[in-house]
């Protein structure tokens, strides 16, 4: 009996030590989804695990609100997931891990994402914290069926903002739809057009210098278009502060001729519009200074509080590799940030002809975006600028303030934010 | 007779059996409670029994209030205190820096003062309308009528809905292509942007809030009405008193304590207005329906650069108003209790 007990204990110890020896290191990814990207990532991760049995990747699918509200608290407390998909990249840069010492081929990683790395690291840093899972770019979405029915040509490559507005008005009048031109209520959405009109945004001292002739030219147009009914009052004037509001439902219901939003709408428009009408992305409207949209997107970054930096780097290197990024972009209908993939083109997987046409237009727009628009993504006061601009111009549209008062308030609000953040 | 006795005996033994766990639990408590009683004495037992509740109250109320005060004295965008800087009363000065409090645009924090004005207007109008509507509804529902239970349920039903659901339902009704505009268009009227016109937006914020909370206050008043002795009305009827006079001389004075509770509860709730109004109007158009709570949320949480210090200072100022209202409620309750005691 005693011998049997000894044997059993030995077997148990052996089993335990064996299970410890083969226990995979767990890498947790905090992830949110707008569409099908969570499922696509799951497929990709399964393949990674099959090739790397010593790493187990756990994807924690959470709501975007968790990333926005709870992640900052976790990070400030020195905790959090190993990897996270996040939009607020620059403002939280101090929490990201520099993968450079842990990557097999840091040079290739850097080369593939060189345009967007500054968006997620501190000014002057050469850290490699992660990569953009997708690029987005703002631009016009056009109900081409309405344009055809109205016999109005869709404005072309070098068309100005005024020409776009004129065309939209003609279509709305002809087709008796309520909204000629809709514009997402967002400071980010406004700044691309403002840069097109010549806004410089950043002063020579590196501090925000938002109010100039270019900015005023676009702000004046926004105010005028609301006054003459080109733009609907309920989007920009309908809510307060920095609250976002879009015109997705109105566009899907065929009530909008031109909707200035961005590339992230393509997948859901394809799903919701189906074959009800044809639509497409249009070329970026021009001002005297540029024809540019505003880039943006979400990034996947490693968190510096991880206990497994080497394993995290292996996961990140796999996810950032060219074939994986290509597959991810093709299946999710996201624009790739990987410069190699973007240069070779992407075969977006969709049966909807509107999708491919639109994504090709947007992909081209990411490559021709103005340098200032690109720089805004890595500018630390962008958030403060976007917030001040939208809340004050919203008041103008609602009839609460005049443009000149709004300009003064925008300046004050930004100065206050900068001062508060610099304390 | 013997059968009945036997059945009673069985029932008694069953209930004894069911009570066993309770007896065991009480016996297990006996020793520690005896020890506590010996340690603190009979007089100290009140404190012992209150301690768990006070602990929860402390952790979830007092400590957060203290932290809020501490944040309001600091600046910066860091979330934790160790990354923040002491700025004294700067945040309060920013909030109260105003050339003319009646004109928000002359204030440094114009959005705060606009939200104060909006909240004050909302509180005065909403509470007045709500109390009058609740009183009227309670009077009607207190009368003998067919399907009275059904009608009571109809008025109480919105109270069961989440404020977000209330906001969404009414948003769908009031939006550009909503139900209300569809009906109006059918009757040949023009489409109105109910939530994009300043005065209409405030009207609907008040209307929806009254609709959502009416049932709760009606219920309190209905309970008060049913507690009024019927013989008073019978005596008044026999004396030939008119309906209006009966209402002024009997109903209203006897319902007054309930009315006061309703007014004060409604006041407190109105000052805290946020969820349903936020979902319905988002504070717009412009800032015309932005209330204090939304200002605090926007300042402290919605921006990328969170200004927790300013948001905390605003919430402390709002807290002072709420404490004043609660003190008023306590004073009224005490006065009522004293009167009843006398």
UniProtKB/TrEMBL annotation, chain A:
SUPFAM superfamilies: Periplasmic binding protein-like II. Keywords: Periplasm, Signal. The keyword Signal applies. It is found in: Periplasm. Its main location: periplasm. InterPro entries: Bact_solute-bd_prot1, SBP. Pfam families: SBP_bac_1. The keyword Signal applies. Residues 1-23 form the signal peptide. PANTHER family: ARABINOSE-BINDING PROTEIN-RELATED (PTHR43649). Belongs to the bacterial solute-binding protein 1 family. This is Extracellular solute-binding protein. It comes from Microvirga puerhi.
Automatic annotation (TrEMBL), chain B:
PROSITE patterns: ABC_TM1. The chain crosses the membrane at residues 12-35, 47-71, 120-141, 153-173, 203-227, 247-268, 309-332. Residues 116-329 form the ABC transmembrane type-1 domain. Its main location: membrane. It is found in: Cell membrane. Keywords: Cell membrane, Membrane, Transmembrane, Transmembrane helix, Transport. It comes from the Bacteria. Coiled coil: none annotated. It is a multi-pass membrane protein. Pfam families: BPD_transp_1 (PF00528). The keyword Cell division does not apply. Gene3D superfamilies: MetI-like. InterPro entries: ABC_transporter_permease, MetI-like, MetI-like_sf. Belongs to the binding-protein-dependent transport system permease family. This is Sugar ABC transporter permease. It comes from Microvirga puerhi.
